[in-house]
Amino acid sequence: MNNLRNNRAILKDTGLTLLSEGKTIRIKAHGYSMYPSIKPGSMILIEPLTIKGLPRPGEIIAIRREQGLIVHRLSKIINSNGIISYIGRGDSNAIADNPVNIDLIAGRIVRSEATGENPVPADIRINTRPNYLINRIRVIVLLLFKKIHS
Q1: In this predicted model, what pLDDT tens digit does every residue of 106-120 receive, in sequence order?
Q2: 31 to each of 2, 35, 37, 126, 132, how far by Cα in Å?
Q3: Domain edges within the chain
């Protein structure tokens, strides 16, 4: 288990280093927080913000977290007394993420690729009005269906 944890830490650090050096990285998506836009198994490409500038609401961004990157849609930008905060939210999440500063945004998702696991590329278009409730219900139904049929 320690080797797996060490390998994940090395991959996380390598990916973040590449992004900080201005390089685009390719990762496999996990989880259902961005369902149905990004399904588990989708391959996504993350480019550093330096290429196209600051993110805009509706774009999908990669946020640095202790355990690695989390990919959520930028739902809101707040300017409070000159301090700018960015709020992400998964398309099927019940609540928004905590606000972060720009230093914690590692990049934006610019492309997706089909995989054998997920033959339909992710939908990474800008969307300023995801239907959170419907998406959440879809995920719940999908997970219940998987549980019943496993």
Answers
A1: 999 999 988 888 888
A2: 22, 8, 12, 20, 16
A3: 2-148
